[in-house]
User: Which sequence fits this backbone?
């Protein structure tokens, strides 16, 4: 039955270890001493485990993984519940490996940013650990059912993290989140099952990809996936849960949402829509590009009108993830590569922005832009970090966002499969997003940080060493990739090139 | 030993290293590093200094006739596409390298004096080094995309430095305006770059030039599209070099510290647009429509800048509009197909305008001792006057600058401006008229600045005027507790500030002699073929009438200024402003362009955004919620949604999904 597996199985279960380690540690949480009001023990455990997990990822992907190969690597395949065809099937390639590392890093930093959680500490950090496992499983599953279980499993910790540790409207935001994503999940499930039953029954993604059905059937499955994953991305008009979720979640959970959850949407689009249904994808690619444009411009305009710092950044995520859609829709190697890089880049930058927002929120206790001003005078280092993340977010060259967005632009430009008129309109509209981004981000900086100090905001104490370290850990890779994009590109290029070739456009 | 050109990559890298070291230090050990003022200044000045030495070595090689050097490597790739980056050193780049490093170095020395009392001294030097690095990277960029990279980076440095005093609202607004206006230009530049890549498959200057021509002649790209692409690319230089109508950010950018106004907003960054157009000559030359557009935009800009400068009362704003006007001259030269003339004016202007700005900084620094740190007071010429007696070095160098920019031979401005007017006369006579009249206006407004600032009685003690100015700016009386008592008259600045002024005075006087039309060494370096031809065809009979006319109109302008502001024989207030109130209001309101911008773009985009958000929260959100709930097809969802028992609901959904999985699974 392994005939379809393109690469040799792993000699050591690296991926299983990466996936299972955090959850195993989460089981220890209830055993920790104390009544849960003291965060030290659970925090230390979570940090240690997540750091170990991150090291495992680095070791696995630097020593036992060859990024020059497009094939699946570190493959593990064990039959789990034969009655329903469920397999414990894990594998990594260029699409998943960089995102696993990204999510490992962001989750570790999320835990570090959750330093001052004051309630139900053991539960909080246990949920973070479960989330770490679930998200790694989402990226690494090579079995549809396993993927789907992971996809659902990951909703629970995020839902609880918002619903218990969020702001005033946390119930509303958390419920909206779960309703949107769970409803969308049904479509994913239906599409996936339809594919699995279309021919000899299988959930294995390689086997499903080899089938790549076309016609109306393929299109319907494609649409199911598109809506299902589009909610997570988020894609217009399914994005409205995001500003609410970000507005209410605490800053650390926002880092996780922006840095990891949104990436699942983009990853799943590449893995399922593009890889499993290439024919439908080529047909619907222009629609994806149009949706991408809408995301970019519509998200930016929404951001400009938002009066809450985190909601504004959330809308900017909608705008930036539009570039992922645009790149995936561009169906050439450049476009897919740009989309991939945009996910990595946005994961770092948005996490940085939400993190710094949390840093000053702990001191100002307000996020309402009209009530703020002159923070730079009191918090110069925080200001420097926020400004740097904003500049990164507005795709300043020298930062990763520029490389990914320019690659997407080039991908659209260079693809002769589209008419010139379509490309011109697409590029012009997307470029309008480039003008709007500095408008809403710099005006955010201006209104929060610039200007004379506001007496009502009695703020003291700039970033502590721990906070500096978190900020730098997010910004240094952003800069490094911005200066030397091959650092990231070499990690996934073989796979994105292969994917583009599969679409018939190299 | 490698030639200087081969290691030219070090020129931007050295200041970058310095900036990174101090930047990291500032972030990690803020207090300690902020106290290390002199060591940081010495480190960063040495970095830029080393870059300057290398730059001069490169220039010397180019003068000796070295061929252009280009080094490329693959920066990013996907599929069969790869993106080269690297550096290119040729005569044009060498001239810019030497110019930028020289002025950057002088401005850094000057800043040691100017920023001595500022808490942000170390941060300021870090930004300066970062800017130098970006600007130097820009001038050695071998292709359009790399230009775009550094183009945005210099824009970022400009943003950081305009907003340097971030607790001032004016600075905050100006910084944002500068960045956004430049992004509008970059929007066009990026579209142009992408379009040219589509048409020619390259970013390289030479290749896109010939490639576009081939594409047009073979019919792949229609002629109008090629022109449109060229004009899109031109939007970048329009914003960066403050050309009408994207010039609006430059005068506001004067909110930044004055050394920045001299370095970035007069001598180097704003000239980058002109430099890029010079680089793009192979692209633009075959399209007369493009050339004409560039020339017309340049001409409008030069008239606009000079006309607004006539009425400015703020010393720095006056100089800023003068810069706008001079950049218009350079662009006019580019449009006339005379890049060498434009570049020559860029170089001469860089020296004398940097000197003028640094001079104004010296004045402001001195005025602050008398009237306090409020820029509304310290920069207004109504409170100045008679400063020559107190600050002789500043006054005499400023005077030299005024003579140079007015176009009086043999100072620098004469030769370069006259060359531009000469080519305009041959190419677009109507635009020559604009340039010619503006030369007179230039002489007038510059000497107006000089007389109001340095001659007559000192007006710094005029409390009534000060109060009036503050009221007009909508500000209350300044807090006096920061400086207990003020000096009653200003003093000359220290050596750090005086020395750069004196050093810059030398090229302001002499550098024009490198470009005399009968033997232009400058032309020989940049375009030997044309320079030799021009020298052969040079005739005094053609040169003297035109040159005589421009000197004549400059002297007329100076005479009017002398009559009005030195001898007070002519009251322009009643003679002109009183008789043409509409014109006066038009100029005082800067052609109403700021008001139009605000109404149309600022308010417009805000209104649009508000409407979109309304639609989003009321329509999109509602429709999707409704559809979702209908799809679930159950009132239960609504009920739990409302009662807040959402955890329970979520568990049901999750459990249901699992059940479905099991069900379908067992069926399979």
Assistant:
């Amino acid at each position: 039955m392994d005939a379809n597996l393109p690469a040799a199985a792993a000699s050591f279960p690296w991926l299983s270890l990466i996936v299972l380690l955090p959850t195993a540690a989460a089981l220890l949480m209830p055993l920790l001493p104390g009544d849960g009001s003291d965060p030290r023990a659970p925090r230390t455990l979570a940090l240690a485990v997540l750091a170990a997990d991150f090291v495992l990822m680095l070791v696995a992907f630097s020593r036992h993984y060859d990024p020059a190969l497009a094939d699946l690597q570190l493959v593990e395949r064990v039959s789990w519940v034969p009655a329903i065809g469920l397999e414990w099937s894990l594998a990594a390639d260029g699409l998943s490996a960089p995102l696993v590392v990204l999510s490992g890093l962001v989750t570790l930093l999320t835990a570090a940013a959750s330093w001052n959680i004051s309630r139900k500490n053991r539960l909080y950090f246990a949920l973070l650990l479960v989330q770490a496992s679930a998200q790694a499983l989402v990226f690494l599953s090579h079995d549809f059912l396993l993927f789907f279980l992971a996809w659902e499993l990951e909703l629970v910790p995020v839902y609880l993290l918002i619903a218990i540790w969020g702001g005033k409207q946390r119930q509303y935001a958390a419920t909206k989140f779960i309703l949107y994503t769970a409803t969308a999940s049904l479509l994913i499930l239906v599409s996936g099952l339809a594919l699995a039953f279309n021919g000899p029954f299988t959930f294995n993604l390689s086997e499903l990809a080899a089938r790549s059905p076309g016609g109306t059937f393929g299109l319907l499955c494609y649409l199911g996936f598109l809506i299902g994953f589009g909610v997570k991305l988020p894609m217009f008009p399914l994005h409205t849960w995001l500003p609410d979720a970000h507005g209410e979640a605490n800053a650390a959970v926002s880092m996780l949402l922006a840095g990891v959850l949104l990436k699942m949407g983009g990853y799943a689009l590449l893995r399922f829509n593009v890889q499993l249904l290439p024919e439908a994808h080529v047909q619907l690619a222009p629609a994806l590009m149009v949706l991408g444009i809408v995301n970019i411009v519509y998200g930016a305009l929404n951001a400009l009108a938002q009066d809450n710092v985190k909601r504004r950044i959330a809308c900017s995520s909608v705008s930036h993830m539009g570039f992922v859609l645009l790149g995936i829709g561009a169906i050439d190697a450049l476009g897919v590569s740009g989309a991939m890089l945009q996910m990595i880049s946005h994961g770092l930058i948005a996490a940085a922005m939400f993190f710094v927002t949390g840093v000053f929120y702990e001191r100002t206790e307000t996020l309402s832009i009209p009530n703020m001003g002159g923070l730079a005078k009191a918090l110069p280092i925080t200001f420097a970090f926020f400004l740097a993340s904003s500049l990164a977010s507005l795709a300043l060259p020298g930062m990763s966002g520029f490389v990914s967005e320019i690659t997407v632009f080039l991908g659209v430009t260079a693809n002769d499969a589209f008419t010139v008129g379509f490309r011109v309109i697409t590029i012009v509209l997307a470029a309008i997003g480039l003008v709007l981004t500095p408008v809403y981000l710099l005006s955010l900086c201006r209104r929060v940080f610039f200007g004379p100090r506001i007496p009502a905001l009695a703020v003291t104490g700039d970033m502590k060493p721990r906070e500096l370290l978190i900020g730098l850990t997010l910004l240094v890779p952003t800069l490094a990739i911005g200066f030397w994009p091959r650092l990231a590109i070499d990690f996934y290029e073989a796979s994105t090139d292969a994917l583009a070739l599969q679409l018939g456009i190299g | 030993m490698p030639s200087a050109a081969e290691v030219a990559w070090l020129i931007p890298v050295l200041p970058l290293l310095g900036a990174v070291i101090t930047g990291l230090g500032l972030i990690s050990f803020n207090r300690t590093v902020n106290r290390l003022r002199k060591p940081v200044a010495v480190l960063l000045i040495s970095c830029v200094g080393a870059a300057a030495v290398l730059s001069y070595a490169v220039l010397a090689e180019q003068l000796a006739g070295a061929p252009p050097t280009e080094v490329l490597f693959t920066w990013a790739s996907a599929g069969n596409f790869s993106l080269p980056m690297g550096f290119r050193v040729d005569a044009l780049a060498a001239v810019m390298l030497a110019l930028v490093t020289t002025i950057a170095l002088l401005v850094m020395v000057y800043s040691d004096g100017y920023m001595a009392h500022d808490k942000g001294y170390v941060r300021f030097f870090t930004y300066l080094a970062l800017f130098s690095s970006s600007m130097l990277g820009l001038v050695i960029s071998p292709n359009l995309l790399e230009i775009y990279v550094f183009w945005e980076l210099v824009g970022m440095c400009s943003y950081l430095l305009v907003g340097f005093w971030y607790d001032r609202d004016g600075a905050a607004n100006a910084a944002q305006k500068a960045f956004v206006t430049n992004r509008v230009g970059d929007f066009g530049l990026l579209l142009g770059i992408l379009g040219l890549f589509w048409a020619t498959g390259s970013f390289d200057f030479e290749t896109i030039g010939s490639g576009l021509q081939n594409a047009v002649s073979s019919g792949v790209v229609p002629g109008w599209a090629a022109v449109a692409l060229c004009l899109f690319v031109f939007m970048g230089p329009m914003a960066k070099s403050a050309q009408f109508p994207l010039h609006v950010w430059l005068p506001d950018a004067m909110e930044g510290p004055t050394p920045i106004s001299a370095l970035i907003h007069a001598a180097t960054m704003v000239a980058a647009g002109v430099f890029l157009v010079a680089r793009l000559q192979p692209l633009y030359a075959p399209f007369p429509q493009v050339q004409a557009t560039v020339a017309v935009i340049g001409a409008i800009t030069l008239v606009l800048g000079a006309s607004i400068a006539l009425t400015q009362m703020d010393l720095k704003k006056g100089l800023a509009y003068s810069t706008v006007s001079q950049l218009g001259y350079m662009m006019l030269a580019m449009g006339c197909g005379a890049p060498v003339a434009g570049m020559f004016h860029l170089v001469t202007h860089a020296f004398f305008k940097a000197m003028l700005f640094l001079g104004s900084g010296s004045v402001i620094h001195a005025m602050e001792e008398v009237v306090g740190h409020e820029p509304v007071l310290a920069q207004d010429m109504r409170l100045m006057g008679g400063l020559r007696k107190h600050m002789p070095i500043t006054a005499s160098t400023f005077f030299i600058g005024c003579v140079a920019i007015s176009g009086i031979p043999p100072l620098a401005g004469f030769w370069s401006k006259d060359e531009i007017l000469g080519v305009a006369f041959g190419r677009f006579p109507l635009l020559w008229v604009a340039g010619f009249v503006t030369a007179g206006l230039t002489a007038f407004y510059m000497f107006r600045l000089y007389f109001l600032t340095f001659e007559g009685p000192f007006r710094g003690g005029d409390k009534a005027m000060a109060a009036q100015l503050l009221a007009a700016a909508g500000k209350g009386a300044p807090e006096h507790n920061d400086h207990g008592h003020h000096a009653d008259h200003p003093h000359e600045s220290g050596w750090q500030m005086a020395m750069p002024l004196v050093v810059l005075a030398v090229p302001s006087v002499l550098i024009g002699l490198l470009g005399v039309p009968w033997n232009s060494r400058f032309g020989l370096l940049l375009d030997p073929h044309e320079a030799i031809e021009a020298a052969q065809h040079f005739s005094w009979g053609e040169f003297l009438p035109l040159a005589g006319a421009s000197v004549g109109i400059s002297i007329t302008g100076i005479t009017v200024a002398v009559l009005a502001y030195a001898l007070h024989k002519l009251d322009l207030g009643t003679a002109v402003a009183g008789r043409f109130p509409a014109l006066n209001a038009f100029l005082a309101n800067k052609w109403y362009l700021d008001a139009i911008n605000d109404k149309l773009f600022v308010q417009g985009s805000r209104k649009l955004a508000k409407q979109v958000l309304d639609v989003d929260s009321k329509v999109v959100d509602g429709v999707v919620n409704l559809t979702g709930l209908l799809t679930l097809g159950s009132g239960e969802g609504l009920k739990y949604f409302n009662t807040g028992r959402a955890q329970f609901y979520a568990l049901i959904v999750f459990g249901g999904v699992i059940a479905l999985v099991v069900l379908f699974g067992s069926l399979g």
